[in-house]
Structure formats: structure tokens, C-alpha cells
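Follow-up to my earlier ticket, as requested here are the two runs.
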Amino acid sequence: MDRREDLLRSEDRGWVDLRSLMDAVSPQEMLEPGLTAERWSVKDLLFHLGAWWAKAFVMLERVRVGTYDGKGEAATVDELNERFLEEGRRLDLATVKAELYSARNQALLGFGALPEVTPEAEEWFRESGPEHYEEHLDDLRVWVGTLTSAG
């Protein structure tokens, strides 16, 4: 199995886990704060994941066309996360889900279009997909468990 295929399979496993947990949460429960210590909701998490996928797509395109310079933007990860949180909270749940699915699909297509998987492309893909899912899945598992035991 080549590296690209391995990364795509890893992303798919994380996506299946994420979707399974999302399916266990009602639309109303997705809006309730408490998923994280920072009082994120599931909706906040979904927008966060989608925003990073969208950013990854841009960076993967830059890698593909040879303009990637190793720089994203002047904002730090924490500043971007805060901006994404504010942006996502202005949107309804259906829009947030649509943007997540769209951004993920675009990034998957962008990753597949690369003539080769460079270290930079691999890093953007891993950190926006499989590693990012893993970073947040435990919070989501606990949240779903709390909802299940309360209901």
C-alpha cells in the first residue's frame, strides 16, 4: 500500500468514527454547550473541523501548483481557532454540516490530485484529518456517553 492510500484509509476510519458519534447526537443536542472545557457544542466542533479542512485544501492546492512556501498566514493556531469559533456560531447547524462535508470532500479531491505526496502535503492532510479527528473524538465520545446515560 502506498503512502497516499494509507493516509486516505486512516482519514476514512476517523471519519467513520466521527460520523457514528454525530449520528448518536440529536440536532438539538448538537447545539448544547459542554462538549469541551471551553464550552464548545458539537456544532462548534463540526465547524472547527470543516474550517481546518478548508484551510488544508488551500494549502494542498498551493503544494500542487508549486506556490506553497511553508507559511499559512500571520495568525496563530489559537487565533484561527477563535476566529473559526466566532464564524461558526453565526451559522445554523445545517450550514455548518454542509460546509464540513464540502471542505472535507474538496480536501480529499485536492489530496488525490497531487502528483506526489510531499512531506508538506502529508502534514496538512494528517493534521487536518486523521490526527485532528483523533484529537477531538475522545471529547465527543464522552459527550455522547453523557447524553446516553442522561436520556
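Run two:
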Amino acid sequence: MPKIDKTDLDNISLIKKEFKLKNITTIKIKKGNYEIELSSETKDITKSVLSSQNIEEKIKDKKSNKENIIKSENIVKSPMVGVAYLSADPASQPYIKIGQHVKQGDTLLLIEAMKTFNEVKAPISGIVKEIIVLNSQPVEFGDDLIIFE
């Protein structure tokens, strides 16, 4: 039985390049008692299976995004540039926790700007769904801080 030598491997590499350039799907090469068959059809099948899976995942993502649409009035945004603090001092409890019911006007957090601590108050009454900002995190004007249900 003949062995595959370096020339054969080089030829196979060249053939692979031709496959890509000329969109060939199958080729057979016979040399002595052995033959090599190269096919890109299985590659196309896996690509189509993967692409159909990706399409299904995207559809599921879009459905879940529709369910999780958040109204803009339920998002508390940063009114200024500064550093956000979730409690009055490091030893104190945070002003709010996830799942907590707050009333309109309750203090949610502090933003330090130019050595002045500014209270960020709840614009609406509701339940805290998510606290996006971390303690001692720098924030920019308009950054999302907290989301209400």
C-alpha cells in the first residue's frame, strides 16, 4: 500500500484552496491502490444546521426581549457626573435593596459631585427590580442607575 508523501500533502492543500475559490463540492483523487475523496458538502450541511440554530436562538431572544421591555419612566438615570454611593457611609446599610418597595421621593442613593453629596430620589413609587450602579462607581450624566417594576 503506497504512503502519502509530502508532495501529496502539498497537493491536497492546493486542492483545498481551489475548493474555496471555485466553489467545488466534491473531488476524487486516485494514486496507485488508494484514493482520496474530498467533499465540502458536509461542511455546508453543518453550516446550515448551525445557521438554523442561530436563527431559532435569535427568535427566542427577540421574544424574551419583548417580555422584558422596560418603560423609560421606570429607569432612574443619573442627573449628573460624579461617584455613586448606595449608602450614607461605608458602615451604613444601603438605602435600597432589590425587591424593596419605595415611595416617590425616597432617597435611592447619593452622587458625589465636586465634594458635595446629592441625593437621588425615587421619581415614582414602585418595587426596585434592579440596581445597575455599584457602590463607589463613577457615573456620567444619563447613565442608568436603578430599574423599577
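The only thing I checked on run two: The chain has a mean pLDDT of 78. Let me know what else you need.
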